Amino acid sequence: MSPLVTCRSHAMNDPIPDFDEACAARAARYLDTLTKPPGSLGRLEALAVSLAGITGEDFPTVTPPGVVVFAADHGVAAEGVSAFPPSVTAQMVANFVTGGAAINVFARRLGARLEVVDVGVAGELPPAGIVHDKVRRATGNLRREDAMSRDEAEAAIAVGRRATERALAADCRCLIVGEMGIANTTASSAMLAVLSGVPVADLVGEGTGVTQAALVHKRDVIEAALVARAADPDAPLDVLAKLGGLEIAAMVGAYLEAAAKRMPALVDGFIATVAALVACRLEPRVRSCLIFGHRSREPGHAHALAALSADPLLDLDLCLGEGSGAALAFPLLEAATAMLAEMATFEGAGVNDGGTGRHHDPV
Ligand SMILES: O=C(O)c1ccc[n+]([C@@H]2O[C@H](COP(=O)([O-])O)[C@@H](O)[C@H]2O)c1
Ligand SMILES: Cc1cc2nc[nH]c2cc1C
């Protein structure tokens, strides 16, 4: 075990509360008293109902949001599975610190708190502007050895929990979880193949843009790793430790803690959704606190979403990561809560409710 590891079992943490069905039902009834044909705001109404049930608040708030980007490197990058060298992970972390990445731009527009957490970056990092919570420098090459030990996976989950706790302490009301890690689509594809039973060939994708020849090689690397690691599909921590990534484990912890604290969590793309699947396999009650921001171009994302019966809000052909798609979806959550809080009722505005029994003009 790495000397940096502090072991804390996910099972020792706060229990996850139930989705507040009564609050959700009140929100649904109230929506039908607002000045619009019932259901006419479609999925925005469903979103408002979900946010009421997640938070247990009749008029939930999601501002300010907190963005957390977890960064780590992957030993499997040595197999030539990414279009970019692993040094780009540390370079992008430096870019997050100076504010030039896409997630910085989107977070600024949202007025979001943005935190970058090093869980396992191999290269040198700026001393300031990031949270140093490294479990180890990169995972092992999952083609040749386990990505990490069970203790290291648990330690990385604890890193994610702490990040959610900091966002809560800073009064953030919604968590946007992102990641940065060259080669993490290989780790995520391997994990998803085990957890879903979908053949690797059906879910592997170009990630940062590998050539067709490299894509065939990437598929072969993943298939060989699945045989060599023999992860137990019914043991999510085994899958995470043998095939996963440190930033993926941290995302699992961030979702677990958000659910424990009734904080809505916006899920980003492929890697984020595989992490969400692990969190839900560990604690099924996490599922109801997750809102899926967008559908990534990465082919595995559709399979990960199907495994969670999730239908994301946006489909913009993105495949960046960093939490970018989740950040772009956030204004819809804001609109849903504002609709609940600010729209006039039929009765208040003196609008005939069309005979639905919600409000009638005096005869
Ligand atoms: O979020 C997604 O759906 C997504 C899809 C493809 C790639 N990425 C990002 O690209 C990096 C991983 O791609 P790769 O090719 O190095 O495995 C990692 O930093 C991710 O944030 C992200
Ligand atoms: C440049 C670059 C930026 C990223 N952001 C998230 N993953 C990324 C991968 C690359 C290669």
TrEMBL record:
EC main group: transferase
Catalytic-site annotation from UniProt: 322
Reaction(s) catalysed (UniProt annotation): 5,6-dimethylbenzimidazole + nicotinate beta-D-ribonucleotide = alpha-ribazole 5'-phosphate + nicotinate + H(+)
GO molecular function terms attached to this record: nicotinate-nucleotide-dimethylbenzimidazole phosphoribosyltransferase activity
UniProt keyword Transferase, yes or no: yes
Top-level taxon of origin: Bacteria
GO annotation terms (biological process): cobalamin biosynthetic process
Keywords for this protein: Cobalamin biosynthesis, Glycosyltransferase, Transferase
UniProt xrefs under Pfam families: DBI_PRT
Enzyme Commission number, as recorded: 2.4.2.21
Pathways per UniProt: Nucleoside biosynthesis; alpha-ribazole biosynthesis; alpha-ribazole from 5,6-dimethylbenzimidazole: step 1/2
SUPFAM superfamilies tied to this protein: Nicotinate mononucleotide:5,6-dimethylbenzimidazole phosphoribosyltransferase (CobT)
Role, per record: Catalyzes the synthesis of alpha-ribazole-5'-phosphate from nicotinate mononucleotide (NAMN) and 5,6-dimethylbenzimidazole (DMB).
Family stated for the protein in its record: Belongs to the CobT family.
Name used for this protein in its record: Nicotinate-nucleotide--dimethylbenzimidazole phosphoribosyltransferase
